[in-house]
Amino acid sequence: MSSAVVLITGALTGIGRAAALTFALEGAHLVVAGPRDKEGQELAAELQGLGAEAIFVHTDVRNEKEVRDLVDQAIARFGHLDVAVNCAGTEGKPGPVTEQTGETYAATFDTNVLGTLLCMKHEMR
Asked: Which residues contact 119 (CB under 8 A, 6 or more apart)?
């Protein structure tokens, strides 16, 4: 997989982080994205320590402008995009359904569903 350009949302934890580490070990160029700058910069440095060319881009997948900028920065840096791993997601507010509100559901939906749609929209262009 050397020189493949891989963009990963939700890269700071869980499956996204595991995917980033695996792709780095395979020699891919990585664009990792998430909402927390400190953790993102630390992940990019860790990936670089594994020999990968990697950058972090602060991104909230619920924000279309940020998603558009993420893809634009990936293309500007590496010239193209080969693989997209859309792992950004949230469990939402823990607790019984009877304690959920429209706002808590919307926040979960916007990250897990709308965020994936926005990512695919801009990655596919």
From this structure: 9, 61, 67, 84, 86, 88
